[in-house]
Specification:
single chain, 208 residues, Rossmann fold, Arc Repressor Mutant, subunit A, 10 helices, WalR-like, DNA-binding
Length: 208
């Protein structure tokens, strides 16, 4: 067990589709005097449902989950509970992912290799209203040279997910012509001939 500056019990929802890792992490967190895992989920949809039903103090989300990824799940939770403390755990600390997470309102962003004692402290810090970003991920973001605007990234992300132009417009509350303009600009900036090539290029560079 580790000593922590917070004596009030912090309740946790833990969501990760890797059952073995999720179980091991839950067991380690339960060793902390002031942390209790009260719910677990193995996909993003259940994570949202449980977060709204159980109302934990802190939600820990894996980035890559079926149903909804960690960032989309965080957005859905925060739409209903704007003050919910959320930490994202990931193996992929790309600058584009960090940008999306911060835009969604995630307070903590950590690599999955974080040691349990450090994670426990970050949970306490985030619960207290502070923000924590893994230093290596933060450094990568500072060095990011992505030329694409947020809207250009949005339409490329939706392209990568298989959405048509009209569907993108509906999701982003934009006219189809505006979506096409963003796609055209993104294609020009990435030096590609189609929106699908632009999405692949941006993904390979870690911008999405």
């Amino acid at each position: 067990m580790t000593e922590n500056s917070f004596t009030t019990e912090i309740t946790i929802l833990l969501a990760d589709d890797e059952n073995l890792l999720r179980g091991a992490l839950a067991a380690l967190l339960d060793l902390e005097d002031n942390i209790r895992v009260v719910a677990q989920a193995d996909n993003g949809v259940d994570a949202v449902r449980l977060a709204l039903a159980v109302r934990p103090d802190v939600v820990l989300l894996d980035l890559e989950m079926p149903g909804l990824d960690g960032i989309d799940a965080a957005s859905a939770i925060l739409a209903e509970r704007p003050n919910q403390a959320i930490i994202l755990l990931t193996r992929h600390g790309r600058a584009g992912v960090l940008r999306r997470a911060l835009k969604a309102g995630v307070r903590g962003f950590l690599g999955k290799t974080v040691d349990p004692e450090r994670l426990a402290q970050v949970i306490a810090d985030v619960h207290a209203g502070r923000r924590y970003i893994d230093s290596e991920i933060s450094t990568a973001a500072m060095m990011d040279d992505c030329p694409l605007s947020d809207r250009e990234l949005d339409v490329l992300r939706l392209t990568a997910e298989g959405f048509a132009v009209r569907e993108m417009g509906a999701r982003l509350h934009l006219a189809s012509g505006t979506v096409r303009n963003y796609l055209s600009s993104a294609m020009q900036k990435t030096g590609t001939a189609s929106r699908h090539e632009a999405a692949r290029s941006a993904g390979q560079r870690g911008w999405l």
